[in-house]
Amino acid sequence: MKGLRRIAAIVLRHFYLLRGSPARLLPLFAWVAVDILLWGFITRYLNSVTKSGLNFVPSLLGAVLLWDFFTRVMHGVAAAFFEDVWARNFLNIFATPLSISQYLTGLVITSITTSMIGLAVMLVLATTVFGLSFFTYGLMFVPFLAVLFLFGIALGIFGCALVLRLGPASEWLIWPVPALLSPFAGVFYPLATLPRWMQWFSCVLPPSYVFEGMRRIVAGGLVSGYSVTFGTVLAALYILLACRYFVAVYHHAQRTGLIARYSAETLS
Hints:
Elements: H1 2-19, H2 22-25, H3 27-49, H4 56-86, H5 90-93, H6 100-128, H7 141-166, H8 177-185, H9 196-202, H10 206-218, H11 225-256
């Protein structure tokens, strides 16, 4: 019971931060809305100039929506952690009986809340403005979201551990991670387009199985249950590895005294 209350306290803290600051609240839906509008009009233009009969809305706009959801999940975990970094509140938090697992769980729940807001905005815009029907993907839309959600959580926790190890100045390394992974994940094109060495790297990225499956459905084919299951297991494994890395970095910070010196100038 105490554990649940401590987790709720972490979530409540970030709720108060969002409620008291429009500057924090606006990015939850503003940037995803811009992305959907931009790519929505691009797909509408492509449909008007191509004669192939291919509808770019479910293949291209759907990919943008799913990738933005993954990005919001990862950034949601990282941003919640960075709030404590920016406020230099990290040492105060762990001076309490709060455990690492409770703290990470609070970050994950916070990310769930913020990413759901962004997802709702994207779904409304994509459906009402550009006519994206999610019946196109069928029931597979749910496991697609699940894989991206799990992998986003894993990368978010890993990013938090990396910043804890290297210092707040390394924050800039975390934000562009989704953009760096997108060429390997095959968000907008089949993996067969990539060179062989990039395809090998794609095999260990859970999102690659999502977007390959999505394109197969749009083309009228069937998705292998094995590939989606493998992507899910792979994403869950990454969560365990990320949590283990975070715990190892935290204990290192305790042993070396880094956690006591944690400030904007800390780089090692």
